[in-house]
Amino acid sequence: MTAVRFPPAVLFDLDGTLLDSAPDFVATAGDMLAARGRPPVSLEVLRPVVSKGSRAMLAAAFPDLPDDQRDALVPEFLQRYEALIGRHATLFDGVAGMLAALDAADVRWGIVTNKPEYLARLILPQHGWQARCAVLVGGDSLPERKPHPMPLLHAAQAIGIAPWQCVYVGDDERDIIAARAAGMPSVAALWGYRLAEDDPASWNADVVLDDAHSLQQASRWPTLPAPPVKN
User: Where in the sequence numbering do the catalytic residues fall?
Assistant: First the structure.
């Protein structure tokens, strides 16, 4: 009987999958709103759109502004966020144990995020990940970003793992779309950020889980496909 094993490599989305960064973004938006004499935005309003990026968060914080005016606020949003990054954010429950289990099993793991790479790199030392994370690909690291498969394929190549031997874990539909296009098994992280109308069951992830604790067990990871047949 074949022993159940962890996959050889795992790639993770960052915000909404490993890191509960919503409190940092609420503080960032709050500073911007206060500077303009506006009331703060609540966590309940901002949290569901964190995985959608800075423009979606600005739309939640400044719903009355036209798109072009909100787009002009993106540089300020990123600058203010950089100044307080990690101050309020925490790992999702179970993430530390999951990563420890992967490390103990000699699984190589990395991060593929749409967050700008320079911001993502600031987070690594806050959690002691700088020596543990095998690869980091940001949203501006390559010509394409998720849901395009390029970042996932680049990350797999960087750590020397075939895409079909690597699992991608993310909390947004574009994560699952990117994984499928890259030929990677996927895990939909339901503990992350979603809009009320999102339907993770329709994303067709290989595995759908409610909490990161489950991924401390090798049996909860997707079964890897057979190697591609070479012509």
Answer: 13
Q: What is the mean pLDDT of each run of 10 residues along the chain (231 residues)?
A: 82 98 98 98 96 94 97 98 97 98 98 97 97 97 98 98 97 97 97 93 97 96 81 61
pLDDT at 3: 66
The 3-state DSSP class for residue 9 equals strand
CB 132 within 8 A of CB 95: no
Q: Are 49 and 60 in contact (CB under 8 A)?
A: yes
Nearest Cα residue to 168 out of 110, 96, 129:
110
Tell me the C-alpha distance between 190 and 168, whole Å: 14
Could you tell me whether strands 90-91 and 19-20 are parallel, antiparallel, or unpaired per DSSP bridges?
antiparallel
Round to whole Å and give the CA distance between 60 and 145: 23
Instruction: Please return the burial class of 1, using the count of CB atoms within 10 Å of its CB with bins 0-12, 13-18 and 19+.
Output: exposed
The pair of three-digit structure tokens given for residue 161, joined into one six-digit string: 């793992």
| Amino acid residing at 195 | L
Running DSSP on this structure, what letter comes out for residue 144?
Answer: -
Binding residues for Mg(2+), by number, are 13, 15, 171
User: Are β-strands 19-20 and 136-137 bridged in parallel, bridged antiparallel, or unpaired?
Assistant: unpaired
Question: Contact at 8 Å (CB) between 207 and 90?
Answer: no
Give the annotated binding-site residues.
13, 15, 171
pLDDT, position 2:
54
How many C-beta atoms surround the C-beta of residue 90 within 10 A?
14
